[in-house]
């Protein structure tokens, strides 16, 4: 460690050797008390970070990296170790609560978030996390109340991206509980605050889910510069299918398929919709072994998509959803 410090602060190798000998027996037996430090201008040591701090920082960093990659159990393990070492660290407690809730441990998550809110009752991040916990527990209306509190705080602070994100969450909860007007209101608010491709496709998809097909088509066409992603083309294809324009629907879904790399989480859904729509448009090309294999793969993917009963199916037009279910249950 002396050699490393000597290099950073320009100490010669000769003096570094002397320092190494002079300080070698001073290493504490308990490494939690050891710290990286240098002499300050006053002559006192300025502590950079104890080995415990470094250990905690490493655990948190690993935990968040695991969480970002979807490895929630690994993330929880790292964060629990960090929380054990620093039980008063609110940042660790917050992240652990979020992960715990995602793993179904809502009681523990609720307790941790409520404790954090006692300290900072107007922290919008905590309110949003509390809403997620309440939503997972089926307390939808109370979750919506907390989301609206967070939305107001973000909006008042001028944080439009976060306010838009929360508005989208409010819209989703409202749609799920049957409050269609509120869902539309907050959905458009989300788009107005953050007119991004993601908000365009989300609002268009909601319009399709509410059977407002003409409005969905018009909205996408009006915001065409922002509607070039896979999700927007998929929403457009569903609206066109519901209107009976099969050729245009398939063309839009073709565009969605060609952009699946932008939204891999939608791959199975988009491919399933393309498979159904393609069956409505006759092809002049004769079937080949290769095309038959491809169709078989698409059907298998569609079967898997239907069997897991995804929430996304609720947003499909009734006719398209009915045809998908029928096509995947026929022997």
Provide an overview of this structure.
The chain has 331 residues and is mostly helical. Among the domains are: 49-119, Serine Threonine Protein Phosphatase 5, Tetratricopeptide repeat (Alpha Horseshoe), CATH 1.25.40.10; 216-281 and 293-331, Alpha Horseshoe (Serine Threonine Protein Phosphatase 5, Tetratricopeptide repeat). 69% of the residues lie in helices and 3% in strands. The protein contains 17 helices and 2 strands. The chain has helices spanning 2-8, 13-23, 51-68, 72-85, 90-102, 106-119, 124-136, 140-156, 160-176, 180-193, 197-209, 213-222, 230-242, 246-258, 267-278, 289-307, 318-329; strands at residues 35-39, 45-50. The termini are far apart. Residues 1-41 and 284-289 have low confidence and may be disordered.
Q: Give, in spatial order, the strands making up the sheet with the most strands.
A: 1-2
Q: Give the CA-based shape.
A: globular
What is the mean predicted local confidence, pLDDT?
83
Helix content: 55-70%
Bin the strand percentage. Answer: under 5%
CATH topology of the domain at 216-281 and 293-331: Serine Threonine Protein Phosphatase 5, Tetratricopeptide repeat
Beginning-to-end CA distance, first to last residue: 70 Å
Largest sheet: 2 strands, antiparallel
Which spans of ≥5 residues are poorly predicted at pLDDT below 50? 1-41, 284-289
Rounded Rg:
27 Å
Query: Which CATH class of the domain at 216-281 and 293-331?
Result: Mainly Alpha
CATH architectural type of the domain at 216-281 and 293-331: Alpha Horseshoe
The SSE string, one letter per element, is: HHEEHHHHHHHHHHHHHHH
From the helix content, strand content and strand pairing, which structural class follows?
mainly alpha
Number of strands: 2
- Can you count the helices? 17
């Amino acid at each position: 460690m002396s050699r490393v410090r000597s290099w950073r602060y320009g100490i010669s190798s000769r003096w570094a050797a002397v320092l190494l000998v002079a300080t070698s027996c001073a290493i504490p037996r308990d490494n939690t008390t050891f710290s990286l430090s240098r002499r300050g201008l006053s002559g006192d040591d300025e502590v950079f970070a104890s080995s415990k701090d470094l250990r905690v920082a490493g655990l948190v960093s690993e935990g968040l990296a695991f969480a970002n990659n979807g490895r929630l159990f690994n993330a929880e393990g790292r964060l629990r170790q960090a929380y054990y070492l620093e039980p008063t660290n609110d940042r660790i407690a917050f992240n652990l609560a979020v992960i715990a809730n995602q793993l179904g441990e809502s009681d523990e998550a609720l307790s941790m978030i409520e404790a954090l809110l006692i300290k900072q009752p107007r922290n919008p991040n905590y309110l949003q996390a509390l809403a997620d916990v309440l939503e997972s527990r089926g307390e939808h209306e109370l979750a919506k109340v907390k989301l609206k509190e967070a939305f107001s705080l973000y909006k008042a602070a001028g944080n439009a991206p976060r306010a838009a994100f929360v508005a989208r969450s409010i819209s989703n909860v409202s749609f799920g509980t049957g409050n269609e007007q509120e869902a539309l209101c907050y959905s458009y608010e989300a788009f107005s605050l953050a007119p991004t491709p993601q908000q365009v496709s989300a609002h268009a998809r909601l319009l399709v889910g509410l059977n407002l097909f003409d409005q969905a088509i018009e909205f996408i066409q009006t915001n065409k510069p922002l509607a070039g992603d896979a999700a927007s083309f998929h929403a457009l294809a569903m609206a066109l299918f519901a209107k009976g324009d099969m050729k245009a629907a398939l063309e839009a879904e073709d565009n969605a398929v060609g952009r699946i790399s932008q939204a891999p989480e939608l791959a199975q859904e988009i491919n399933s919709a393309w498979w159904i729509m393609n069956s409505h448009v006759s092809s002049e090309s004769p079937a080949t072994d290769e095309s038959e294999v491809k169709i078989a793969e698409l059907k298998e993917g569609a079967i898997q998509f239907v069997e897991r009963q995804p929430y996304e199916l609720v947003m499909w037009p009734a006719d398209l959803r009915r045809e998908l279910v029928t096509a995947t249950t026929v022997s």
